[in-house]
Each structure stands twice: as C-alpha cells, then as structure tokens.
Design brief:
This protein has one helix spanning 2-22, and strands spanning 24-38, 46-58, 63-84, 91-113, 116-130, 139-150, 155-164, 190-200. By secondary structure, it is mainly beta.
Length: 204
Amino acid sequence: MYKKKLAIAVFLFFAITNIQAQVTFKPGLRAGLSLSTVSEMHANYRPDFYIGGFGEINLTKRYALQPEINYIRQGSNNVARNFIDPDTQTERTVHQDLQMSYLSVALLNKLKFAQFQVQFGPALDILLSDNLAFRKTYNDLSFVTGVAYKLPSGLGFEFRFKKGLLDVLDSDYYHNNSNSHYFFGDYNTNINFQIGISYSFETK
C-alpha cells in the first residue's frame, strides 16, 4: 500500500511539474464593432463599439483560459412604444433608440487548432449607464461564443456572439402590438455581435 501511494505521489508530482512547464501567460487588448439589439422588440440593431483587455493563460498546446474585462456599448435602435396619451386619451406610438453600456467580466475557454480558435464561456455584465425609463435588472449574465484567427505576430481577428440571459427591460412600457405574437414576448434579453481585432503581447 505504501509503495502504491508513493508511486501515485511521484506520478502527480511529475504531471504537475510538466503542466507548469507548459503554462504561459500573454496579456492583450481587443476592440471592434458592437452590433446589438434587445430580443422580441422588433427593433433595429444598434452599431457601436467595444474595447477591453485580456490575459491568455495557455495550459496546453490546444487549450487556454482567457479572463477578460471589456467595455461594451449595447442597446437597440428604433424601439416602438405604444401608450395612451393622457391629454387626448388616444393611443400613440413613439420610437426611441435604447442605449446601455456595460463593464463585462468574462472567463472564456479557448480551443486552439493551429491559428484557428474556438472561444466560449460565461460573462457578468455590470451596467454603467443607460437611457431606459424602466428596467428589470441593472446587471446581466451572458454566454459568449465565437471564433478567432490569430497570426504569428500576435494580431488576431475575432467574431463573437454574446447572448444575455436576464430580462433587462419592462416590456409593459417598451412594447409594440406585434409582441403578442411571440411566446417569449415579455422576455427581453440582450443580443450582441462583436467583430474586431485583438493583439497579444509576447512575455518572457
């Protein structure tokens, strides 16, 4: 029994040592175009930008963890709102561009195949500012997935999809008549596409 435990301990020691020898860390920056909308609002995508920093922790040749902090401007353009005008007691419709900015803290998994990468993981989005009249939550939880192509120089090209999980606004205030045709008409979540570049710095 003692020899068996000793053999396991020796194996674990060399395994951990081997992993530590392979681990590398590369900080980097990322920025690009943010295209976003709010689901079930039948509105237009809002073009804006995102910018942030990350640290790529390469655990093996094929796998890395990437914590990130990003500033992302989201929202939705041309959102319809139906309401009863208190002066005329008639129904009116107005359109408004919704703006929301988040500090997004993410932890992504990266699967690497030569220069091609697959990315996915969770994110916590902390609301910094908005022009919503009525909201249901100040912060959001989201899931991020995407692909990237990284050049040997450290420059990379990214395409991501980020889907919010929480109901972010009160659709009793922001709504239009066509919402009733959708089963999830009152479940209004952030939808965000990101197209941009990244750059990883070499470290010694």
